[in-house]
Design brief:
This protein is an alpha+beta fold. The chain folds into three domains: 156 residues, Glutamine synthetase, N-terminal domain (Ubiquitin-like (UB roll)), CATH 3.10.20.70; 390 residues, 2-Layer Sandwich (Creatine Kinase, Chain A, domain 2); 127 residues, Four Helix Bundle (Hemerythrin (Met), subunit A) (Up-down Bundle), CATH 1.20.120. It has 23 helices and 15 strands. α11 runs parallel beside α16. The chain binds adenosine-5'-diphosphate and magnesium ion.
Length: 703
């Protein structure tokens, strides 16, 4: 019998929750914390000192020796620099641990080595981290022992955001402010805040550690750069929701336990489409906490895998020709008096409000489809979006049959009087339809689907932070709310004005609605006719964040300054170039040191055999044919390797980051493909005993 644990007992064990603060803080300090958490502002230094003391006591009681400001630089992952609680011993040699309010709320990590896109000259190394009081501190157990982690925002000395959290928090404020204006119009005077909620479904692959270590590409690039298809892939559809293998099950059990202790509500787990591919989904929560927690999920997935003799691959496309990994970002907006603005609702008022919100979101997504697509791009995701696999790179919205019918009627006649399916709710306005929420999602090919009471943004990459997609969603919807509120607040007859606005928005932006098969070629042609952007790669999407339209949007709501956006565009090019550079170098290494030498060895063995067999007077045609095929592909590999080395050197010499990134995409990647093709053919011919690296079959099935 394995060790028994009680979920209720361990949940949040490693989190300095509100409950623990209430227990450990004097009432007035606790109240101050809650006030700042709910409504912003700064904690007084006296209160910060008291909180720091209590937090340290709790952490030390639980074995913590160090603390760290945990932040999210533009690398897409998290960063931490540990400081111990150790202080000067007294004259008797006794040491009392220390942690002040100042250390809690502000840190100054040497920031010169994080991407800043020119925002902070490298000699000006100072950046600072500031406590995000809305995301609870937690204890991380790792090889380092126990560390108190304080979620923080990371800014330059002059206040520019150098991270993913700062703009996200700014976007949440903007959305809250503008959404409040909308709910006020409908008589909601109680709400004081509107919050974006997010539930990200995380996909991942597992691979045996011993096999992983034999693959330079997996170790350095996180994906395979060579590899012929395995005899069996996902065609039998026997893995999705299949019985979870023992070893994977044991991994999931430990992973859940670790996440629950960290207060992450790991809820659903199952096998995914590809062999050795799985998914974990937590219960949705406030956007910035969901973003932090998703980082913890990704970290824990990797850490726990090592304990089980496996590695976790978060890359969007670890294996060519097999289903890749993404992250479905479920998003909704809720008032603090409990109204989900994406829920069609129970009262006439909520129903009209819902239609207005829906119209605003359609307008936002259509107006800023380019930004939304950009927010979901990362290097690995280029292998999914618009490449061999869905979702497509074109943004469109799926509404479901019933809702689409309502929208069509509204556009065509200005009123919708019938409802496709059964039961209904009253809108109280005769020109607006009565309808019921339709939670069935019949379209898995849509990048942005309405699923009953939330939108599911399915483009996000599995390895990427979900901060950018949510920052973008919040920003574009805040803008649409703001423009609607500007008009409606001035209206003499609100009912008529709302009705007209809904009709106008739906009519103007109906091109973004698409309920058909997003994977089909017909859709590509149709989308082009509709004028919807089809941005094929991460670096082609990069400039969308510095268009006049984007700068106007982000500056208007104080989410990004133009300078911040320009720096982020530059970082995208840099990241892309660096990543492809690593991939190219890993290929050069494997081809030159492993694959070509092995093939040379095999061709020598073949040639020797030809001679021996010939000497014995037997037929050598098979051996000779094999030798011919091997030699031909070997020569192709050698030529392609020389070419890759050449273009790789050319790429490294390009100074302009944008030009460099495009050169990597257009020239270096093409050379990589040329090198891979003959190698994958050789893998199918060369003696298995001689082939130097584990095959796709082994990587995906030996787990
Ligand atoms: P699927 O059918 O795509 O697997 P689920 O219904 O299981 O979807 O939900 C997937 C994710 O969506 C979960 O993380 C869940 O908590 C989240 N979710 C559910 N309702 C909401 C909501 N109102 N807002 C945001 N996320 C939500
Ligand atoms: Mg989903």
């Amino acid at each position: 019998m394995s060790e028994v644990f009680n979920v209720e007992e361990i949940f949040g064990q490693n989190v300095f929750t509100l409950g623990k603060m209430k227990e450990r803080l004097p009432k007035n300090v606790y109240k101050e914390v809650v006030k700042v958490m709910d409504h912003g502002g700064e904690l007084s230094m006296e209160a910060a000192n008291v909180v720091a003391m209590a937090m340290k006591e709790w952490a030390v009681e639980n074995g913590a020796t160090h603390y760290t400001h945990w932040f999210q630089p533009l690398t897409g992952i998290t960063a931490e620099k540990h400081d111990s609680f150790v202080a000067h011993p007294d004259e008797m040699g006794k040491m009392l641990t220390e942690f002040s309010g100042k250390e809690l709320i502000k840190g100054e990590p040497d920031a010169s080595s994080f991407p800043s896109g020119g925002l902070r000259a490298t000699f000006e190394a100072r950046g600072y981290t500031a406590w995000d009081i809305t995301s609870p501190a937690f204890l991380k157990e790792s090889g380092c022992g126990v560390t108190l982690c304080i979620p923080t925002a990371f800014c330059s000395y002059t206040g520019e955001a150098l991270d993913k959290k700062t703009p996200l928090l700014r976007s949440m404020e903007a959305l809250s402010e503008q959404a409040l204006r909308i709910v006020r119009l409908f008589g909601n005077t109680e709400a004081t805040k509107v919050t974006a909620s997010v539930g990200p479904e995380q996909e991942y692959f597992l691979v045996d550690e011993k096999l992983y270590r034999q693959r330079t590409d997996l170790m350095f690039a996180g994906r395979t750069l060579f590899g012929a298809p395995a005899p069996k892939g996902q065609e039998m559809e026997d893995h999705y929701f299949g019985v979870i293998r023992e070893r994977v099950g044991a991994y999931m059990k430990d992973l859940n336990e670790e996440l629950w202790k960290l207060g992450v509500t790991a809820k659903t787990q199952h096998n995914e489409v590809a062999p050795a591919q799985h998914e974990l989904a937590p219960i949705y929560e406030t956007a910035n906490i969901a973003v932090d927690h998703n980082q913890l999920v990704m970290e824990a997935m990797k850490r726990v895998a090592v304990h089980h003799g496996m590695r976790c691959l978060l890359h969007e496309k670890p294996y060519a020709g097999v289903n890749g990994s993404g992250k479905h970002n479920n998003w909704s907006i809720t008032t603090d008096n409990g109204v989900n603005l994406l829920d069609p609702g129970d009262t006439p008022n909520e129903n009209i409000q819902f239609l207005l919100v829906l119209a605003c979101i359609l307008k936002a997504v259509d107006t800023h489809a380019d930004l939304l697509r950009q927010s979901a791009s990362d290097v690995g995701n280029d292998h999914r979006l618009g490449a061999n696999e869905a979702p497509p790179a074109i943004i469109s919205v799926f509404l479901g049959e019933q809702l689409e019918d309502v929208v069509t009627q509204l556009i065509e006649t200005g009123s919708a009087t019938s409802v496709k399916e059964g039961g209904k709710l009253l809108t109280g306005v005769k020109t607006l339809p009565d309808f019921q929420k339709d939670a069935t999602d019949r379209n898995r090919t849509s990048p942005f689907a309405f699923t009953g009471n939330k939108f599911e943004f399915r483009m996000v990459g599995s390895a990427d932070s979900i901060a950018s997609p949510n920052t973008t969603l919040n920003a574009i919807v805040a803008e649409a709310f703001c423009e609607a509120a500007d008009r409606l607040e001035k209206a003499d007859d609100l009912d008529v004005a709302v009705h007209d606005l809904i009709k106008e928005y739906l009519t103007e932006h109906q091109r973004i609605i698409f309920n058909g098969d997003g994977y089909s070629d017909d859709w590509l042609a149709e989308a082009e006719k509709r004028g919807l952007p089809n941005i094929k790669s991460m670096i082609e999407a990069a400039s969308t964040i510095t268009t006049d339209k984007a700068v106007k949007l982000f500056e208007r709501f104080g989410i990004f300054t133009k300078v911040e956006l320009e720096s982020r565009e530059e970082i995208i090019y840099e990241t892309y170039a660096k990543t492809i550079n690593i991939e190219a170098l890993a290929m050069i290494d494997m081809a030159g040191k492993q694959i070509i030498p092995a093939v040379v060895k095999y061709s020598k063995a073949l040639a020797d055999t030809v001679n021996t067999v010939k000497a014995a007077g037997a037929d050598t045609s098979v051996q000779a044919e094999l030798l011919g095929e091997v030699s031909e592909n070997l020569a192709a590999m050698q030529t392609a390797l020389a070419k890759l080395k050449k273009v790789e050197a050319e790429a490294s010499a390009i100074e302009d980051v944008k030009a460099q990134a495009f050169f990597y995409k257009d020239t270096v990647k093409a050379a990589m493909d040329e090198l891979r093709a003959p190698a994958d053919k050789l893998e199918m011919i060369v003696d298995k005993e001689i082939w130097p690296i584990p095959t796709y079959g082994e990587l995906m099935f030996e787990i």
